[in-house]
Amino acid sequence: MDSIVIKLNRIQYPVESLGFGKRFGIWVQGCSIHCDGCISKDLWPFDKGRKIPVKALVEIICQMGSSIDGISISGGEPFDQYSSLMAFCSYLKALNGPPVQVFSGYRLDEIDTKYPDKTYTECIDGLIDGPYISHLNKGDFWRGSENQNFYTFEKGNAQKKSYPHKQGAWALNSTPEGEHFFAGIPAPNTLLELENYLKKAGIQMRFEK
Hints:
The chain is of the alpha/beta class. Helix content is about 20%, strand content about 25%. The chain is built from five helices and ten strands. The strands form two sheets. Strands 3-1-2-4-5-6-7-8 form an eight-stranded mixed β-sheet. The chain has a two-stranded antiparallel ribbon with strand order 9-10. About 30% of the residues are buried.
């Protein structure tokens, strides 16, 4: 386990917009899907981000104890690092850690085809699947667009669930280098409204690629 690493862009706590309660957010680095309209293009390149041992990441979470209601893993594309993702989720599950919810641009049937061992059905508690389609963004709480589905797993079987009808709060965090970032799924025009607001204050908003 000490030799297994996962490449991350960032971690953030608390996050209250990617699942219920106060969650530990993990954004992996690297994505092969490249959805049109993606707001996280800076997470596409596989040669960016930083590697962290899976064991060290689990230890960070365990040290926080009961303050974490759950873990939300997004990106980037978590399933593009399948072995590392499975190592992390399995190790956390063995330690009776918080429930894990993963956001993936792959559909459930595509995941089953790519990874027929189906290990993920035993160690992931929730999955939001499917590519982001910008014209289907209706401002839902968890998903980016209406084509995406929410599944839980019971004894290795996927159970499709309905989406919660509530508005989630965006989480804001800053790095020591003075970079600021949000956690959440913006509704249509939200980013444009934010950009115009910041422009009036003399602040330019830009997305890195």
